[in-house]
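User: For this week's homework, look closely at the record that follows, marking any run of repeated tokens, and judge whether sequence predicts the tokens.
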Amino acid sequence: MEARQGGLDGGVPARPRAARDIRAERAAALARRGKAAATVDAGLDHLVCACGSERYGLPLSAVAQVLPMRPATPMPGAVPALIGLIAVSGRIVGVLSLARALGRPDPEAEAGHLVVLRSASSHQPLALAVDRVLGIARAAGASAGHAPDPDGLGNDAASGYAPGTAGDDRPDFVIVDLPRLLRRTLP
């Protein structure tokens, strides 16, 4: 009797996994990593800003300062979300419209506040123009029974939804994934 060689499935020779299977596993792993990051953001304090009738939360750890809006110098040929440049404490700072960066319509009124972001050493300093800053709120985490839903928002730069609770002053807001927003908006 001849001994069978091969894989674990009863003697059929093992085949290398198809590239399709490897890509599917990688996509699933990346999706799990994105959901885990959204869950981590859900327990952090956020600076809640208004853009039109909508409220967005920016992780407070990413905010350097909030300033009143000031005129910006336009940049010809810049990306559509870039309003222009301003000087803040002797540094040139690019100003992005949060509404435009999120693919929302431009607000009818001029932006009222600039949210200056903490910059990584290799990036140009940036500020986000928003209608107004509403305050600081902690997003309800999974422990409070409110897990963010990154799949249900239909916007790549939104990582979750933070509902307000009854009897609390905390407003509902959409959690913005700043790294993803900036990667998508800036070249």
User: Anything to note?
Assistant: The helical segments are 19-42, 98-101, 178-185. The radius of gyration is 22 Å.
